[in-house]
Design a protein that fits this description.
The protein is of the alpha/beta class. The chain has two domains: 192 residues, 3-Layer(aba) Sandwich (Rossmann fold), CATH 3.40.50; 201 residues, Rossmann fold, CATH 3.40.50. It contains 14 helices and 16 strands. An eight-stranded mixed sheet has the order 3-2-1-4-7-8-9-10, with helices on both faces. Strands 13-12-11-14-15-16 form a six-stranded parallel sheet. Strand 1, helix 1 and strand 2 form a beta-alpha-beta unit. The longest helix is centred in the middle third of the chain and has 31 residues. It starts with a strand and ends with a strand. The structure holds ligand SAJ. Ligand SAJ binds next to helix 8.
Length: 408
Amino acid sequence: SAVNVIGLGYIGLPTALMMASHGVEVVGTDYNKELVATLNAGQTTFKEDGLDELFAKALKSGIKFTTEYQVTDTYIISVPTPYDNFSKKVDACYVVAAVKSVMEVCQKGASVVIESTVSPGTIDKYVRPEIEKNGFVIGKDIHLVHAPERIIPGNMVYELLHNNRTIGADDKKIGEKVKDLYSSFCQGEIVVTDIRTAEMTKVVENTFRAVNIAFANELAKICRHDNMDVYEIIRICNMHPRVNILQPGPGVGGHCISVDPWFLVGDYPSLAKVIDEAMRTNDSMPDFVLERIYEIMKEKNMRSIDRVGLYGLTYKENVDDMRESPTLQLLESQKRHLAPGLKVYDPFITYDVVENQYHDLDTFLKDIDLVVVMVKHNEIKENMAKLRGKYVLDCHNIICDLPDVYHL
Ligand code: SAJ
């Protein structure tokens, strides 16, 4: 049986490659012609450990890439769900558009699997009617499934193979059928449940992490207030068998942890109070870093912010993804304070994104006196010695054996 994976981004591409290299007949579809051309020219479109090897294997197994939708038994939809930071709402328009295109080619008996993360209730409210509009009876003519992804950028290929997964289907038999498909490569346990539960679990998992990061960030603020070492406190607390505190940081980025919990706040404003407060705490961190920068500048008699440099533009370490990144949030906020001039460098971002951006670590360091470690890329750990003689605001507690290191 053949699969058409629709949307060849961070999730769709590795999923398509994984299935293809495990004997499934796969066609990958994306509306972006350039992306399809790049893949057909034998190149992947982003960096991930093991992705290129997986790509080579999938090509050998005969995977195809095209801009057209195919007639297959199963459609896996993994298109983006854009998010409006201002209204705190997610837009399922790409998911609905993809389903609409699938309806134009699919035949009775096909399964439509939504992998994209959606706000709970979206599939019933927007996807189901799109299918029914075409005269199909769901559960009889077309089977609808939600299989939310769980892989973490930076370790995607490994996690795709090993993570447990959730399959949501209102018809158990169909759930089991799609489970068999994912079992072609997934070595983790696959739980079959209903669609609404699957939608909710995905958002709740990311909310759990957001709330726990917020707790660590709040501790950092409390400890700063009375000059206590938050890292030492967390380290000792985590020696307790039932305590496992996460790490504070300069903010929370990415398209998941900083976004999904807002779905619950939006849908249950009078109930999701802890979540709401946690999200605000995480969102306040870039401003907290900015305050720390001004404090250090004052203490060290630094007059101009243009001798301050932000190291890292991506939303986390060792990836090239900048979505909702704390550094971009900080720069936005600084613009509002009418104090431009901060310098920026990231080894993973080789093209110009913001003003005063550098593409070479040595030149960047030459032009600044205070380095703010925004992202714990391996590169900075490898080049730690180059920071000697600078003031450092280490937002991740990774710089050791240097004088003049400040923390959150
Ligand atoms: N962060 C902290 N402190 C920590 C851990 C993370 O400040 O202790 C920050 C990171 O620096 C980053 C943000 O949180 O800015 C999110 O990073 P992450 O590594 O926690 O997660 P993501 O967004 O890369 O991936 C998450 C994962 N979800 C969970 O772990 C519950 C992943 O499994 C999901 O598949 C992914 O979201 C998704 O696509 O939903």
